[in-house]
Design brief:
NE0471 N-terminal domain-like; Double-stranded beta-helix; 2 domains; six-stranded mixed β-sheet; four-stranded antiparallel β-sheet; elongated; binds fe (ii) ion; binds zinc ion
Amino acid sequence: MNASISSLARNGETLTAVWAGGERTDLPYLWLRDNCGCGECRVEQTTEKRFHLFRVPNDLKPSTVAIEGAGSEDEVIAIAWPDGHRTRYRSSEIHRLLSPSHPDLQYWDGRFQPQRFGYGPFLANDSAAMEAIEEFLRTGVCVLVDAPTEPDSLEELATRLGPIREVLFERIHNVMLDPKGYNIAHTDLAVGAHNDFTSYTWPPSVQALHMLVNECEGGESTVVDGFALLDELRRDHPDEFDVLCRVPVPSRIFSEAYECYAANPMVALDTEGEVRMLRFNTAQMQAIPLSEPRLTEFYAAYHELSRRVNDPAAEVSFRLEGGQILLCAGHRVLHGRKALRSHGHRHLQDAYYEHDNVRNHLRVLRRAGGI
Ligand SMILES: [Fe+2]
Ligand SMILES: [Zn+2]
């Protein structure tokens, strides 16, 4: 589609642009006024908006509209408003805003293996970091290898992943055999695929699992692509999928000192109906109140989801050695662990970050690289 406008027509509350290729775009007058980029409407130092919409009437209409420099790269839509204010947009600027950008997601099943990236280059080299972050955003998982084995090294990842998202219990959690532990991961039992802290209304959206030392037999790490499962479940059983989006499920983790509880549906959608979050944590799930009118339907749907999450065909497993860090997109990828078969020394640390910060760090890297 050519970023040049062949005509503009006023239509009720919008300006209709017809592009050189014949496509039409409606530009609401209030949108055109609100996004004005002039020095009066913006804080020049920061580009933040100074203009407040209430300052114009809600039935605002332009006095005049014109195309200047038609057909050139500098083509501009020039608008004059009744109060004398003037707004100018490059046609190319409007053209860039035509379609929302969708994340490029790649779903996977048990045949997949997470890609591995060197820890040192990830921290030191921008192009290595970009490659790893792009893969992480696409698949929701990757492994950093040749990482330090000193406790609390996860602090270093903040330069790439953004600040640590602190939650209750510990800033950097320690997972090892502990008869007093507050969590199933502190036992030698298998830990089924789950995501952490479903007991927060906004669970941490990135998790780093850092193996410091692993001298145990067994205890292989497992990951499952929650978005891939939900995509199939939605196609096969749309009604069951819908119930999982609607019934709040209480989730709780606690110790003597702390209490962490929230009730939310297992599946959250974005405004376009795409899956934004899966919450699945069997160990921390609490009884749903019997007053829930969709309880029977929920249990049929939950049974189906539980079967799919635990299907060996969906599970990827690998051994996480000392000096390796598994990164998971916490709202998408479920992680778990097979049972420990011997009680050798095993010490894992995990910490959380936020997906927005990782995604936006990639933008900073691309900007710096002129991409
Ligand atoms: Fe976990
Ligand atoms: Zn302005």
